[in-house]
Write a structure and sequence with these properties.
globular, two-stranded antiparallel ribbon, single chain, 140 residues
Length: 140
């Protein structure tokens, strides 16, 4: 049986449903003017208000707009929902974050995908280490 505590490193990613403790009328104008750091101050995960036990995990600094909720096939946020960074990549262990971003895909979802490049450190005597890309990552 695998548990996150039994490994040297672990990555958890997906739609965590983290929300912003803000009203939409304040949030959207701030996002549209690039004030993401201001808006991030109200992020449930960053405020430790998710109810999930994620204290062993870290998340890199991100500087991309909220990834949810869009009108499908557009760049417009949904008129009824407050945008949020629901989609996240968290990690722990001998990993170093190289980049963390979202992709501007508008296909058939109300979310925007997030991606990260992490470097994996090798334990002594286990061989080479290098970057691993979230898409399956060929190593150089």
């Amino acid at each position: 049986l695998f548990t996150a505590g039994s490994s040297d490193c672990c990555v958890v990613l997906g739609d965590f449903n983290f929300r912003l403790n803000l009203v939409r009328d304040f949030c959207v104008p701030a996002i549209e003017t690039g004030e993401w750091d201001t808006v991030k101050g109200y992020d449930q995960h960053l405020m430790g208000e998710t109810g999930l036990e994620l204290t062993q995990f870290q998340e890199g600094h991100f500087s991309f707009p909220p990834t949810y909720k869009f009108e499908v096939g557009t760049d417009r946020y949904d008129e009824k929902r407050t945008p949020a960074w629901c989609d996240r990549i968290l990690y722990r262990g001998s990993l170093a974050l190289q980049s963390y971003d979202s992709a501007p895909l508008k296909a058939s979802s109300d979310h925007r995908p997030v991606l990260a490049v992490l470097s994996v450190g090798a334990r002594e005597g286990t061989g080479a280490a290098g970057p691993v890309v979230g898409t399956g990552g060929d190593r150089p």
